[in-house]
Amino acid sequence: MPRAGQSRSGERLSDRVAIGVLTAAFPPSLVDAALASTGRLEQRSRLLPARLVVYFVLAMCLFSGQGYEEVARLLTEGLRERWRGQWTVPSSAAIAKARSRLGVEPVKDLFATVCHPVADDATRGAFYRGWRLCAIDGTTFDLPDSTANVDAFGRPPRSGRGELHVGHPQIRMVGLVECGTHAVFAAEIGPLRTGEHALARQVFASLRPDTLLLADRGFFGVELWQSAAATGADLLWRVRKDIVLAVVEQLPDGSYLSEIFDQKDIHHTRRGVRVRVVEYMITGHEDVYRLITTIMDPIAAPAAELAAVYAQRWEFESTLDEIKTHLGGPHLVLRSQYPDGAEQELYGFLLVHHAIRTLMHQAAREGDHDPDRISFIRSLRVARRQVTDQAAFSPRQTRPRTQRHAH
Question: What is the pLDDT of residue 90?
Answer without folding.
Answer: 83
